[in-house]
Write a structure and sequence with these properties.
The protein has 482 residues and is of the alpha/beta class. It contains 15 helices and 25 strands. Keywords: Oxidoreductase.
Length: 482
């Protein structure tokens, strides 16, 4: 049991401040209050944005080597406090302690990559003399920061997804105001602490805690905010695009990720990878495996093996190192998943394993015979449920995999290079993982999707590109001046 409720402050303009009102952060596993956090007002958010703008405008020179040094110190701070970060992630969220430790490790890498990419954010020379009449012109283009970035982050990766906003923003010389998920703000505040302790100049980072409904519009519509970086659901993303106006926007809006398993695949490897991809982080994962299409000749064997492996997963106390699957983020989310599964069963789906809710826990569930029109087949479940169905061949698998309004990542298991390249060419997604499930990502790669899965790409270098503008410089040389 938790023995002490933490009284937290938020970071605004480089200062740790309280608010007149607070809200409770609860451990989803037992609903116990673990912290009280400032409930920021619209005025607080406005002040944070104005301080970010003032700081950015008043900083005439912020050398690259200083940004690199700060980011490296942040990475070291995270390493030195790794278990503290992990305990915090696991306490406020759904991840098991082992999953939380993995997120801390990834966050360290994200910040380290940000430091490295700050060094490599270069421009390029332009051959103006390629155009007739421009023989006496030379020049180049370079990138400069947009100014103030507004970031909105979700609960499922409460540390690393925040790092994916702050790290590239600081690396490219921007100021940033972060609104973390209300159910998991503690990891974001701890990361802010790391930046403060590492010498980040005041004003370049604010972490404003509170209600998205109260704060979101101010962050999105304020004229000083030049870019919005959002990770969350498609409904919220659509509203942001309507309200933001003439701002740069980067959005990752989730998925309904498919995996294809062909008869020439390593079946054991496909099962192991796909079980992990479907049920890690309780399925609350934007690239988690939701649909699996299996070539009919191996369908029965694959299904039996998959179901048996799923049944072996240990559901329970997320702080127990033996636990595979912890609680969902809130009981209402577990109830939503339960309702979606029950709706599919009513329409003819069959539960092969799982299909049980116990309070905030929803047990890993495998469904077959799910109608293509079912909500659970079309939308993002964001829970520990996977659909498995047979297909006649790769062409049919790809066609069915594409038949949703999402396109973040996909996976295919095959030993045939031609099958792999067919999938690469015809799958309408942002990333295709060969002999991996859809649930594979490194923090340096471009990450984003097609269709309803979002706009733009994250991954440190690619986020930095979106957080900067290109300026062209051209010199006209006058020979008679020599």
């Amino acid at each position: 049991m938790h023995t002490k409720i933490k009284a937290m402050k938020m970071l605004i303009g480089g200062k740790w401040v309280s608010a007149e009102e607070t809200f409770e952060v609860r451990d989803p596993q037992d609903n116990e209050v673990i912290a009280r956090v400032p409930l920021a007002s619209k005025q607080d958010m406005t002040f944070a944005i104005e301080e970010a703008e003032r700081t950015y405008r008043n900083t005439q020179v912020w050398p690259t080597h200083e940004r690199i040094a700060i980011l490296n110190r942040v990475a070291n701070y995270i390493k030195e406090h790794a278990e503290e970060f992990a305990q915090l992630i696991a306490s406020e969220g759904s991840k098991t302690i082992n999953e939380a430790r993995g997120e801390v490790k990834r966050t360290t890498q994200t910040i380290q990559i940000s430091a490295e990419e700050a060094r490599r954010m270069n421009g390029e020379t332009i051959n103006f003399d390629q155009s007739e009449g421009s023989e006496n012109r030379i020049g180049y283009q370079y990138r400069f920061p947009v100014g103030v970035i507004g970031a909105i982050t979700p609960f499922n990766d409460p540390l690393n997804l925040v790092a994916h906003k702050i790290g590239p923003a600081i690396a490219s010389g921007n100021a940033i105001v972060v609104k973390p998920a209300s159910v998991t703000p503690l990891s974001a505040l701890k990361l802010a602490e790391a930046f403060v302790e590492s010498g980040l100049p005041e004003g370049f980072l604010s972490v404003v805690t509170g209600s998205g409904r109260e704060l979101g519009d101010t962050l999105v519509t304020h004229s000083s905010v030049k870019m919005i970086s959002f990770t969350g659901g498609p409904n919220a993303g659509e509203k942001i695009t309507q309200k933001a106006g003439a701002k740069k926007i980067s959005m990752e809006l989730g998925s309904n990720s498919p995996v294809i398993v062909l008869k020439d695949a390593d079946l054991h490897d496909a099962v192991q990878s796909s079980v992990s991809g479907a049920f890690s982080a309780v399925g609350q994962n934007c690239i988690g495996v939701q649909r699996i299409y299996v070539e009919r000749e191996i369908y029965s064997t694959f299904l039996d093996t998959f179901v048996n492996r799923t049944a072996e997963l240990i559901v329970g106390d997320k702080m127990d190192e033996l636990t595979d699957v912890g609680p969902m983020i809130e009981q209402r989310e577990a109830e939503r998943v339960e309702a979606w599964v029950n709706e599919a069963v009513t329409d003819g789906a069959k539960i092969e394993v799982g299909g049980k809710r116990q309070g905030v826990y929803y047990y890993p569930t495998v469904l077959t015979n799910v109608p293509a029109t079912a909500k659970i087949a079309k939308e993002e479940i964001f829970g520990p449920v996977v659909l498995i169905q047979p297909v006649e061949d790769l062409s049919q698998a790809v066609e069915q995999a594409n038949d949703v309004d999402y396109g973040l990542q996909a996976g295919i298991f095959t030993s045939n290079i031609h099958h792999a390249f067919y999938t690469i060419k015809h799958m309408n997604v942002g990333g295709v993982m060969i002999n991996d499930s859809s649930d594979y990502r490194i923090d340096a790669m471009p990450f984003g999707g097609t269709k309803g899965s979002g706009v733009g790409r994250e991954g440190v270098r690619y986020a930095m590109e979106s957080m900067t503008e290109s300026k062209v410089v051209c010199f006209r040389l006058q020979e008679n001046m020599l």
